[in-house]
Amino acid sequence: MSDKLVLVLNGPNLNLLGKREPGIYGSTTLADIEASLQGRGQELGITVELRQSNHEGALVDGLHEAQERGAAAVILNAGAYTHTSVALLDAIRAITVPVIEVHLSNPHAREAFRHTSWIAPAAKGTIAGFGADSYLLALEASARL
Ligand code: DQA
C-alpha cells in the first residue's frame, strides 16, 4: 500500500523561522520542522511534502494541488494571511481534503487583529501555541483522520 500524502503549506515570512522574532516563534527553522515531520511521517506511513511561499496565490495553488493529488490532509500555517484571506477560505471550502490550521504561537494571546482567523471556519481543526510541535501534533491528527 502506498503512503498517504500530507502537504504542509507555509505562508509569508515563515521562510525566516529561526531568525524571525525568536522570542515568539522560537529558534527552530522551517528545515528543522520539515526534517522532523518527514521522520515522524515515515513512522506513520505518511509522505510529507513541505512548501513555503510569501504569495497568497501560491498557497491557493497548493490547496488545489492537494485535491488533485488526492492528499490525505493539508497542514496549513497561513501566517498573516490567516487574518486577511477570503481567497484561502474559499480555496479550503472548494476542496474536500481536510485542512488542519496550525500556528506556532497562540494568536489569541496576542494582538486583537490576530484573534480572527478567516480560515478557521473551513478548517477541520486548529492547533496553535505549541511552537514547532504544533506541526507534529497536526501530523498526528492527520494520521487519525
Ligand atoms: C503565525 C501567527 C500569525 O498571526 C502570524 O502572522 C504569523 C505566524 C504563527 O505560526 O504563530 O506569521 O501563523
Task: Characterise the protein shown here.
With 145 residues, the chain is of the alpha/beta class. The chain has a single domain, classed as Dehydroquinase, class II (Rossmann fold), CATH 3.40.50. The protein is built from five helices and five strands; from the N terminus they run E-H-H-E-H-E-H-E-E-H. The chain has helices at 22-25, 30-44, 56-68, 86-94, 133-143; strands spanning 4-10, 46-52, 73-77, 99-103, 125-128. The protein has a five-stranded parallel beta sheet, with helices on both faces. It starts with a strand and ends with a helix.
Task: Throw out a few tags for this protein.
145 residues, Rossmann fold, binds 1,3,4-trihydroxy-5-OXO-cyclohexanecarboxylic acid
Outline of the structure:
With 145 residues, the chain is an alpha/beta fold. It has five helices and five strands. The model has no long low-confidence stretch (mean pLDDT 97).
Fourth CATH level, the homologous superfamily: Dehydroquinase, class II
Report low-confidence residues grouped into runs of 5 or more.
Answer: none
Total number of helical segments? Answer: 5
| Helical content band | 25-40%
Q: What name does the CATH topology carry?
A: Rossmann fold
Give the termini distance in whole angstroms: 17 Å
Order of helices and strands: EHHEHEHEEH
Q: What CATH architecture do you see?
A: 3-Layer(aba) Sandwich
What is the average per-residue confidence, as pLDDT, rounded to a whole number?
97
Count the domains. Answer: 1
Strand order of the largest sheet: 2-1-3-4-5
